[in-house]
Structure formats: C-alpha cells, structure tokens
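Reader question, answered in our methods column.
A reader sent in the components of a multi-part assembly and asked whether the whole thing could be modeled at once rather than chain by chain. We filled in our standard form and ran it. Here is what they sent:
COMPLEX SIZE: three components
ENTRIES:
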Amino acid sequence: MSLKYALFTGCVAKGAGRELMTATELVCRKLGIELVEMTDAACCGAGVISEDNEMVADIINARTFALAEERGLDIMNICITCQGVHRKCQVKLSSNPDYMSRVNAALKEQTGREYKGTVKIRHFGKILLEDYGLDKLRQAVTKPLSNINAGAFYGCYALRPHEYSDLENPDDPDEMERIIEALGAKPVKYPERLKCCGFPILMMNKRNSMALSGNAIKSAKDAGSDCVITQCPLCHLNMDAYQPEIDPDLNMPIVHIQQLIGLALGMSHDDLKMNTHIVRPTGAVASI
Amino acid sequence: MLSHDVLIVGSGLAGLRAAYEVVGHLDVAVMTKVYPSRSHSGAAQGGVAAALANVDGDSIEAHTYDTVKGADFLGDQDSIEILCGDAPRTIIEMEHLGCAFSRTSENKIAQRAFGGHSFNRACYSADRTGHALLHTLFEQSMKLGGSLQVYSEWYVVRLVIEDGICRGVVAMDIKTGRLETFHAKTVMFGTGGYGRAFKITSNAYANTGDGIVAAYRAGVPLQDMEFVQYHPTGLYQHGILLSEAARGEGGYLLNGDEERFMQKYAPSKMELGPRDIVSRSEQTEINEGRGAWPKKDYVLLDLRHLGKDKIMEKLPQIYHLAKDFIGVDAITDPVPIQPTAHYSMGGIPTDNDCQVYLDENGARITGFFAAGECACVSVHGANRLGTNSLLEALVFGRRAGKKMLEATRETDWSPLNEKAELAAARLEIDELVHTKATESLADIREELKTTMTNQVGVYRNGDDMESAAEKITELQDRFTRVKVSDKGKNFNTNLIETLELSHMLEYSELIVAGALARKESRGAHSRTDYPKRDDENWMRHTMAFRQEDGGYELRYKPVKITRYQPEERKY
Amino acid sequence: MAQVTFRIFRFDPEKDKESRYQDYELELEPGITLLNSLNRIKSEQDSSLTYRMSCGSAICGSCAMRVNGHALLACKTQASGLVKDGVIQVDPLGNMEVLKDLVVDLEPFWKSLKQVDPWLQPDVSDNPENERLQTPEQFQRIDDATTCILCGACYSDCNVLGVDQEFLGPASLAKANRFIFDSRDAKTRDRIEFISEMNGVWDCTHCGECSTRCPTEAKPLARIMEVREAAMQAGVHNNNGARHALGFRETVGRSGRLNENYLPPRSVGFLNIPALIGLAPVGLRMFMRGKNPPIIHHSIDKADEVRKIFSKFEDYRHHPTRSSRPDDGASD
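And here is the structure of the entire assembly that came back:
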C-alpha cells in the first residue's frame, strides 16, 4: 500500500517552527510516506477565528477539506491544534446536515468548491500507528534511543473534548508512549502529561501561561524525563521559547515527536534543526 | 450563642421563598444541611401547576376541584383555594425573578398535561422545573448578598419550644462538629419530606424527616403521616424519579405483554390518572404476574413513539437518567419502572399562614412556622397531584414569610437556656458516640427500609403492618446499641447518618400507627383488608402526639370543606 | 461479579499529618454506580469514610469527585467502567482544599460564582403584569447553560484555576453566559465588559477539561466560546483577547495564513510600549536561533478565495442553538 497524504502544515511549521516542517519531511521521506503539501489551504483558525465568527472558521476549514478531497487524499496534520480544530469542524458538520448545507452553500458561492464529507483527517502520530505500523517503525530504527527517558506531552486538542479526539482512551492515552517505545526509548508517564501548555493565553495572561508550561516541564523533570516530546508546535513554542523566562534552571529539551523519530532513524541534530531550539539539546538527548 | 430575628431551616423553595419575603426587613438567616442549590426541590422535574390558561381554557376553579378530588377529599378546601388561587401570580413572579420556562409558540410560558389535572396546567422548564425554580431563588439569595446569612452544612439537632413559644434551635456545624445555640424570635422549618425510610424511593439521601422529628420531639403533633405517595415511574431498582411529564408528553405504560394496562383502571385518563391510581395499577399488574421479563417485578414506560427530537427537547433528563443509571436508551427501548416512595403528604400541621398547630383544636405555637413538604396544611390530603408540590412550597413559603414578618415585629425575645439546651444536645450525641455498642447502623437502616417498602407500600393490610410495627419496635431497641465508629468531630457523616436513622425510626412508627388505625382506603393509603373509602368514620386528619415515655397518641381533627362534597373518584 | 480494589484518598486533619490512600475490596454487582459502591464500603467496611451526596439522581451536584484523576458525578457513573488494572482510584475534587477524605472546601467556588452577578437584571422600567415574553428559540438559547448543577467538576479540573485562583473559572463563565444570552436581561453589555476583564473569559486556554468533565449539558467551554463571539460582536475589543482575535482575523483574512510577527504586538496593542518591550526578549531569543518567523509574510496559494469568504464576515455570523450544534463535551 502506498502511503500518500495531503499535508496540512499549519502556520507555525511555516513560521516560528520551521524545524517541524523539516523534520516531518525528512522522516516521511525516509519511511516512504509521500506528502503533498496543501499550499492553498488556509489557517485552521486555531479556535481563535471561531471566537470571532464560528461559521467563517467552519467555512474556511470546509474549504481545506474540499481541497484534500479534490486531490483524492486524506489529510495529515502535524499540529495537534490544527488536528483538533479540523476534527471539531468535521464532527459538527457531519452531525448536523442542515448546518453543513449552509456552510457548503457559502463555500460554493465564494469558491465554487464543495466539501463532500469523505476525507479522513488525522495527525501524523495517528497515521504512523494506523497506516504505517509500529512493527515497521521498529524495523526502520537504526539508532535505538535506549538511553533516553522521554516524557510525552499530548496537548489539549489531542484529548479534549473526547468526541473530537482520535485517541483510544483520551483520559489515559498511550499512543505517544507506544511510538516512543518503538524507537527504543523509555516512555515516562508524568502527572502533567495531559495538561494544557498555556500557549493560547500567552498574549492575555503571560504569567498563567508560563506557569502552566512550567508546571508541565517540572513534572516531567521530577519524573526523570530527559526531554519533553510534543506533537503540537504551539506547546513546543511555549515550553521551549519561553523556558528561559519560566525558569532558566529547567534546561529541559523540548522535542517534536518527528525529531525524536528522526534521531532514531539515524539523522543528526543539525539535520533535524534541533539547534534552532531555544533550549539546546542537553544530557542524554545531546549524546545521540 | 448566635441570634437572628428569623431563622429558616431548609433552603429549598419554601425556605428560600420565605427568606426572600423577610430579608431587608428583619435579621434573617437560612440554615441547610447541604447547600441551597442542592436542596431536594431541585429534583422536581415535570412542572409547577397554575391555571394560566396559556394553552387552553383552564380556570382556578378547575384547578381547585382537581386538587380536592386528587386529594381524595382529605385536603382542607380553604387551603386548596388559596393554593390554586395564588398559583398564577406565583408563576409570573418566578418568571420575573428570572426562572427560564419553556415557551409556547405565542412566547408565553408553556403548559402541559399532568396526571389528575383536567387541563394543560403544568408550567415547565424542559424536565428540570424544580431545578430551574430552585436556582432562580438561589440566584436571588446571592443577589441579597450579606443581608441574608446562609448557614450551609449545618444540621439541626434540637428545636426548642417551651410553654408554647419557640425559642430557637441547637445545631451542629457539620464541618467542625461544633454545637451552637441559635436564639430566634421566629423559627421556620422548610425541611422537606421523609421518603428515605423506604427502600425504593425517589427521595434524596437527605430526606430523612429531620425537621419533622425535631418538631415532634419538641412537642408538636404530626398530621396524616400515613399518607406517603408512591410515584408510578421510579427507575427500576433505583427508585429514581422519571417525571410524570413523560406521560404528560404522551408516554405509554406497558405490562410484560406490552399492553397499555391503564385502559383497565382509568379508561378515560389512561396514563394520566392520578399517581395513587396509576401506582396501584402497576402494582396489581406486577402482583398478578403480568410484569415484564425476566423477574416480572417491573412494568415499562414506553417513549419510543414520541421520537428522538421530542424526547431530547422535552424529556432530556429522563433520557439521560435511563441511559446512565441502567443503560437503557429510551429512544429505542422501553424503560423498566416500578412505583417508588416519592412524596410525604403528612407532616407538621399548620394554618394557612403556616403557623404551626400545637393540638387538634387549633392552638398555635408562637414563633414556629413550617412550609413545603415538611408541613401539612393540608393541600394534598390523601394524594398529591403532580406539579402541586413546587406550587405549595412557593405559595406557602411566601405566606410564611409575610406572616413571620408581621408576627416577629410584634414579638419580644423569649429567653433560651443556652447551657441546658447545649448540654441536652451534647448528651444525646455523646450517648450515641460513646456507648459501648454492637449494632450495625447499615443493618438497622436496611431492615427498616425493606420493611417499609414491603409491608407499608402501595398496598397495605393489617397483618403486614402489625408485623412492620413489631419490626420497628425491635429496630428501635437495637438502635439504642448502634455503633458509631467515627469518633471524630469534623465532617462526621457517620454520626449524621446515625442521627438521621433515629429520625427515620421515630417517624416510621407513626406512618405505621396512622395506617393501622385508618381502617379504610383513601388516596395513597390503600388497604386490601379495607378497600373502600369510609367518609363517615375517616374523613378526618390523623394527629400523632408524642408521649413522655416516647410512645404516641393518635387523635383526629375534621377536614375543612368549603365547596366540594365528597364523591366517588373516577378517572 | 468482579473483585475490585477501591483506592480511596483519606485525610482527616484531626488525626492525620498527611493524606494517604486506603484500599477497599468490593465485589462489583452488575449495574452498581460509583456512589452505591462507596455507600456499600461505608456500610460494610468503614463507616468513617467521608464524602458528600444527596439526591442520588444527578441533579443536586453533591457527589462530584475525581476518579483516576478526572472529575465526575459519582451517582450517575457505573463503577464497572472505571476499573483500571483491577483498581478504581478515588480522589477529592481538585483546585480546592480538602476538609476530610473526599470532601473539599467549596467556598472559593461559591465566591467565584457570586462575582458574575448571577441573577436576572431585567429592564426595571418594564414590569409587565403577565410573564415577559420569550420565544421558544430564546428559551432554547439559554437552555443548555441553565442545566448547570453547580457540582464543581469543571472547577476541579480547570487547568487555569490550577495556577491562578483569581480566574473566574468555567462554572461562573457559563453562568454569565446564561444571563448574557437571556433575552430578558438588560445588563448584557455590562456583563460582557465585566468578563472581558483580566481573569475573565479571555483567560481560558480552552483546554477542554471543563466540558469534558461536565455531567450536564452546561458544557462551560462551549459557553465560553459563545461569550467570546458575543463580545467580539458587541465591540468590546479593548483587551488582549479581543485584539488577538481581531488580529487573527486580519492576518488570516488577508493572506490565508497567520502572520506570527504581526499577532503579538497587535494583541497587546501597538501603542502599549511596556508590553511591546515585554515581547522583545523572546523575539530576540528566537531571532538569534534563526527561529523567528519569516520577515516577509507569504500568502497561501489562492488566498483570494479566503479573502472572499472573509469579506462576507458579518453575513456568516452563526448563532448555534441546541438544535444545530452537537454537544461540546464529554458524552453524557
């Protein structure tokens, strides 16, 4: 089965988190997963446009879904916020045919496009588990990360509300841990792994935002984690770029899950642009 | 010692409505063993009655007659006239205070059918009417801010009445276990009903008749205690209430053969017969082997034909209760139900201004009021119509408030012996906690509840009730040796449950006594050995007086009739 | 019947220096709820076990507690679904102080609720003899919000309250929604302005815990999002949250993609010099690592389609009602 997806990059992977884009492309190429970047897809709205106008946000996302359907491909998200927002929109449309037809009417009027409701929308990690398979991933590993204790940080949009989550048990998930394990690393489950990173209120209440990130990083550290693994570049941004302001002594590398996989596939820190992180790889992570 | 001009015990609709009337004029406090928003008024689902005539040609007269007839002619008709006459004003007032009511297509308060009512009279807020009303008054109590003191999680241990004058209460701060005397010129009880003595009941764990028994122990008689309403649609085995609105909106009752059995018992009203008749019909079906599979000990509430949209719009709570508690999807399957002990018609006897009677001749206690389910005015007589209880709490809560305001202003402080009262309360608790004890609280409670449901339930007879009376005496004896394991002070729910059980044992005795003495069938009191109503001998209220030795004496008082002479009840 | 270990948080400040967990073994009968399981433990094994309960039918909100780390209502939850490796771990609600075992001090919760003036404030000059009229749709508009039972489950699991007790919290914001959208209330704008301030509606991270734990249809997160939309529409824009939403609209509406260089100064306000200076350190850090967003912001391909959609912004303002919106939260 050839694995080919419409890649929805999201804004951050094209902006402040370009290393995520690099790592995703490198890892997918190595694993034989073909990506077609949706250069014409618009920002998912991150739950912010819907604060202003929910229906506009839904029309924009319906357009994105239509673009993938036109290409005959399922969507791969690499940002869990985009994933959560897309899924919420998709569930809302599919459970309410009346609303869907209004959204489609607007979409058609402005763009001539139509969302049919057939596209599958998943995050990179879920695609890896479901379509690629952990056994194959294990076989692809050339450099098992046996000396790394890795604490997964899921991100709210991966988990809640439950009906938009594609995890098997969003109150106690293990999907990220299973990937970490397949790479030969030791997953660390720490108390704050399902909490919020605080990024969405960075501009509204920086103190609370940083406290949330700080608590999560400390919790991972206390549990013996060498690094925090994220699947959302916004969590990454808050925990990495603001870490010196939260507590400079934390010194906790924050690693996109694609980067962790890249390391296990034999790529270097430079390949994966890990040196662009504010917190440079230290300890066990640096030694790979 | 703390003091307030007016102390209201109970924070349900009656208590909060009364407080609303008094606040700003006098120093008033509300005390509750839970929090106001957690009072059991909030559990009422289907509606609140008022002849608004928003959807049909209803009238206050029709409401009055329906209530008199529903009560099987044991209700006091002067009180019922007040209840029904004040209903429209009451509903409008609650709407103005913010209660969110479902609406008609003309944007008025929506009204639906309910058992025993001859018009669409039940004003409702989906199927959470009590919740909507209670939260509205709770919101108003927050608006009053500091001028209304609320003592949440306080538990009344003693009511102090001396020489016919009420002087206050002794209560325990549940959080700390501290006993405190509350001196008051006026005390009002809105402490709710007593259904918890039954195994299958829709009542909250809190509904253990605490106020009723505190009054009884302080020398107040209790009226018509034998009248306990069994609601026809309790969730099978849980007893949880599934609103009568389910039938008001067109739900069917089916037996095990999927027959709408109500055509045998109330051919014109069918499922919308009054509660006593529907519950008996269900029990007959079950007793005669026509219950539903597999144990044939329940019947079915069928909503399927109403369709998903109507169920989710009008009866969402019922849908969720069936789904969460027994895993039945009411959209696709009929819901197993059985009669459940639901409402206490009996209680603390009061006049129409809610002042409490001291005896059967009309003497009143100075400074003591009661309203709502704990009171017996009596507007419900032998059987309450659905949606009349929320109404009663609001109408009589307000009346109590008005009268208390007037009376308290004219009242001086009567002395209260704090030391003696505290000591008495302390002793009662210490005896419970520190006696060398062997009996299990849970065992006594379970045996009591099983006895009450099995032997003093929908159908009653002399033999069963004699045996229940003996059992209760035995349990009361065992209770003197009950074990309280938690010796701590703060948040001692073990102790609270023990005090509650002592109340349940005390009033259960009166339920049985009143029922044994009443040799007839009337409303919710249905005896297989006396199946007929006997107006000549029994159209009168039971009054139970506590004796020095802890025993009781039954006396009687006549029913007040204004317009409606007793007639046979047919539906 | 399965044997299950209930691992229950115990703490009695009269006796205990520290909290502990105590294990109780119970045979789970089919269909038994968590609350009835606790009642059996209290009756049969340990009468000192302390928790709140009252109605037993999911309407009073007394028996909210945490199981396996998440808040729920004990009376309406089947115990069998909570077993994890043979154990059900029961804790008191979070974000509040423990008084004893599973009982917490609810005062902060009530205090927060009172801050939003949770009572109807109609136009005082309009005092009709009969009921105020309201269309069925207007009733529906507040129907979900009014189902709140004030159980505190959302307050317990709210992530922001975990770091800042000054935050109004999900239940209070849902209560504010209930009055903002009540057609009979005359203080809509005052209410919106109040909760647009610090610690209000814009301080929520939309982590989704509240709606996921909510045992009713109140679903605070959905209510918060509705209020934000109402605030935007009412033009209450003088705060970072609203400016952030406006900035998002502006940049995505122009180019189809977020301009990360534009949004932060837009959010704090272009004339807000201290806040702009506050943004400098992180900007500098990112610049030094080459992690700053591209200086020249690139549009997506076919951005004109997006511009067209945004040009009809006000036409597409969608007001969800119960009938047009799926539950925004946990299954219920």
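What stands out: Chain C touches chain A through 79 residues (CB under 8 Å). The longest strand of chain C covers residues 2-10.
Send us your own complexes using the same form.
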